[in-house]
TrEMBL record:
It is found in: Secreted. InterPro entries: AB_hydrolase_fold, Peptidase_S10, Ser_caboxypep_ser_AS. Residues 1-22 form the signal peptide. It comes from the Eukaryota. It is an enzyme of class 3 (hydrolase). Belongs to the peptidase S10 family. GO terms for molecular function: serine-type carboxypeptidase activity. This is Carboxypeptidase. GO terms for biological process: proteolysis. Its main location: secreted. It comes from Punica granatum (Pomegranate). One of its GO terms (cellular component) is vacuole. It holds the Pfam family Peptidase_S10.
């Protein structure tokens, strides 16, 4: 039997399941597993309302004040309405915004922000990628780990725990069509990690050519959620480019995945275990939903070999597990199960859209009449054939070559929960697997208070972060900044080793 027939059979088996059929007929969740509904729901839950579902414009050059014919066009940035007491000049701030004209595209441009470190220009370069897929990195910039936050009166206030206090910080709106990034040709919309990682690699080459003074700095890749796919692929692309001496050497030292989706086969299987452990579902419900798991596992295996129609099928099949749990969880916020969603609203990030729509802000950014697409349903759907692929497979090579990996997860997130993340990290085959698995958990402390639990061996670290949901830098800003500092300075695993040695001596 060929893969297409197997895929059709999987979908038939799923619909034939009594529990699944009941779920599909429930008016609260009818169609909730369909991609367009998922994408729209994601946007509503964050109280976002982008005017367009994708940034496609007529004509490329000249549509934006920054996006002329140059390969990269950048300007120094001074946001208007900066809060009282900022007291910095543009040069002191070292803030920049720019467009990169993608080399290998029909007519695409990536928009980015670059914030020089408040501490030292010698600090590492850290790039942040927001997931979705299809959500702008400005979400993290303004609500998680950027230099400032947006006040209700539309002024900017300093973020005391912004990651620019320990790094030179890059945010990129990607894939193409997200945020202020745009194209005039729909053929530039990406569907897999090859397209995404090549675009980011080409961007870095242009960025370091524009900023040669930063080219020798240590470089780290970070992000969260669907960036659990982006990050390993991007890290592998940078490492491959370095080995092949393709262009400017990028001093890649590590990559960090926060509450990410990386190995779906393991992580989807963990949904019911996490939900049961946290009291979201009961044992009988657990047993019933778990009947879908073998079908999901088979679908994911087919996705790994076929990569097209079967990957779409696996998305439908496997997301029934999550939808089934949420049908029982009611108004629980699946980004943070300690919280409730009111109607469709789980978070209110609408100030970001209001701020970025102001004429003075748009002039400062040089984006002209380009729409800001906070989250793109079209990009979300375009990446569906990529969703169920296992991005863990490229990580062992990076670890063997000494590239560090930190996987961290807030303990109250359901959708990319710590349990599933811990399981794929522990299951990963590499030379240090046994010693990592056998290593002891140690406490991660901030100001003498336990902020998480850490496990490390060699280049690999895993941390469960206390009192945090899906967005760790938003929920635990001080702890996340300290985590970044220690990790990039090589002190995170050192702390774990010292504590282990102390216990052994006792």
């Amino acid at each position: 039997m060929d893969n297409r027939k197997l895929t059709s059979l999987l979908l038939c088996l799923l619909v034939a399941s009594p529990f699944s059929s009941a779920l599909l007929l429930d008016p609260r969740f009818a169609g909730s597993h369909f991609p367009s509904v998922h994408a729209e729901k994601l946007i509503r839950q964050l109280n976002l309302s982008p005017k367009e579902d994708l940034n496609v414009v007529k004509g490329g050059d000249g549509s934006s004040g920054l996006a002329g014919g140059k390969r990269i066009a950048e300007r120094k940035l001074r946001f208007p309405n900066f809060g009282v007491g900022s007291g910095f000049s543009v040069d002191d701030l070292g803030h920049h915004a720019g467009y990169y004209k993608l080399d290998h595209s029909h007519d695409a441009r990536l928009f980015y922000f670059f914030f020089e470190s408040r501490n030292s220009k010698n600090d590492p370069i850290v790039i942040w990628l927001t997931g979705g897929p299809g959500c702008s990195s400005e979400l993290a910039m303004f609500y998680e780990n950027g230099p400032f936050a947006i006040a209700d009166n539309m002024t900017l206030v300093w973020n005391e725990h912004g990651w620019d206090k320990a790094s030179n910080l890059l945010y990129v709106d990607q894939p193409v069509g997200t945020g202020f990034s745009y194209t005039s040709d729909r053929r530039d919309i990406r569907h897999n990690e090859d397209g995404v990682s090549n675009d980011l690699y080409d961007f870095l080459q242009a960025f370091f050519a524009e900023h040669p003074e930063f080219a020798k700095n240590d470089f780290y890749i970070t992000g969260e959620s669907y960036a659990g796919h982006y990050i390993p692929a991007f890290a592998a692309r940078v490492h491959r480019g370095n080995k092949a001496k393709e262009g400017i050497h990028i001093n890649l030292k590590g990559f960090a995945i926060g509450n990410g989706l990386t190995d779906p086969a393991i992580q989807y299987k963990a949904y019911t275990d996490y939900a049961l452990d946290m009291g979201i579902i009961k044992q009988a419900q657990y047993n019933r939903i778990n009947k879908i798991v073998p079908v999901c596992e088979t679908a994911i295996k087919l996705c790994g070999t076929d990569g097209t129609l079967s990957c779409m099928a696996s998305y439908f099949v496997c997301n029934t597990i999550f939808s089934s749990i949420m049908a029982l969880a009611g108004d629980t916020n699946y980004y943070d199960i300690r919280k409730k969603c009111e109607g469709s609203l789980c978070y209110d990030f609408s100030n970001m859209e209001k701020f970025l729509s102001q004429k003075s802000v748009r002039e400062a950014l040089g984006v002209g009449d380009i729409d800001f697409v906070s989250c793109s349903p079209t990009v979300y759907q375009a990446m569906l054939v990529d969703w169920m692929r296992n991005l863990e497979v490229g990580i062992p090579t990076l670890l063997e070559d000494g590239i560090k990996l930190l996987v961290y997860a807030g303990e109250y997130d359901l959708i990319c929960n710590w349990l599933g993340n811990s399981r794929w990290v522990h299951a990963m085959e590499w030379s240090g697997k046994k010693k990592f698995v056998d290593s002891s958990e140690v406490t991660f402390e901030v100001d003498g208070v336990e902020a998480g639990v850490l496990k490390s061996y060699g280049p690999l670290s895993f941390m469960k972060v206390h009192d945090a949901g899906h967005m760790v830098p938003m929920d635990q800003p001080k702890a996340s900044l300290e985590m970044l500092k220690q990790w990039t300075q090589g002190k995170l695993s050192t702390t774990a080793t010292e504590e282990e040695n102390s216990v052994a001596e006792m």
